[in-house]
Amino acid sequence: MDRVAIRRRIRLFSLRLRELRMIAKGLLSTHHPIDVHLIPIRRCNLSCAYCNEYDDFSKPVPVAELQKRVHRLADLGTTIITISGGEPLLHPDLDEVIRAIRSRGMIAGLITNGYLLVPERIKRLNRAGLDHLQISIDNVTPDDVSKKSLKVLDQKLRLLAQYAEFHVNINSVLGSAVRNPEDAITVARRARELGFSTTVGIIHDHSGQLLPLSSQQQKIFDEVAAMSKRSYSRFYEFFQRNIAQGRENTWRCRAGSRYLYICENGLVHYCSQQRGYPAIPLEQYTRAHLEREYLIQKSCAPRCTISCVQTIALFDNWRHPQILKAADSPSASSVQLESQFAGKN
Ligand code: SF4
Ligand code: SF4
Question: Is the distance from the beta carbon of residue 73 to the nearest atom of ligand 2 less than 6 Å?
Fold first, then answer.
């Protein structure tokens, strides 16, 4: 076994221990965010047709500001920070953000389209202490919907297999925007061949809502899901399977409490598809906000496809019914921000 593979094993073991601590903390207390998505830059180098989460002009958020946000999240008791975008690797100081996350004992994740990965960048991510990286691959060959294609990204996957000491997950996708559903099987097989874990997700509409799959796509979903090795992905596949079959899910969305989405302007939102709620600056976000949002019902929950929030909700679905309606939220009127973002895309 080579040196990178040995280091990867050691780091994976340490990550699993920290994940167990995160799970125990999440089960013992409801007063902290479990997973936070942090946006260091809204700009992306691609322009996937289904995406409403990017622009082609935004500057990177200054690193000092991002570090301040990381420390604020740590003070709120956050256990995982997942860096997303836009394309986060366009941020020149991303390593410093990852270091700040790790320095406060949190798990550091990264969601990227993978285009900017080169050996030196992967080694920098190793040194910064990245725990987990995910790439979603939409098809085998690029088309007018998406260029996140196996044909383009295979060389990047090989680099990750060679140099990455962190955990890598490859997500394949299904949905109406995907022209060749069988591509999901090819992507998942290739990922497993290279030693990565795999998940399968369903592309949602522009408000994060359910789009049922055809029967052919449902079969492919089952086949790809069966290849997943990671145990936690089994949980969200339960949600995704219902969505695939056009069924609504019964669950309690704890966005705004157990899951937060921090946009490039430093505002707290429910999720990438419900930007504008509650849209409170992170530095003013308190435990009282966390506790209130924990109890607020989200009307978009039954048809939601946002798998990361659904996974986090498993910590609390069995406890504390949500007794407040969204209209009771003092911040529900901040909806104007959503149209501001919608205009960018
Ligand atoms: S899906 Fe990702 S890669 Fe595609 S445009 Fe959106 S942010 Fe960029
Ligand atoms: S249910 Fe929650 S995660 Fe899903 S779209 Fe609504 S606020 Fe976002």
Answer: no
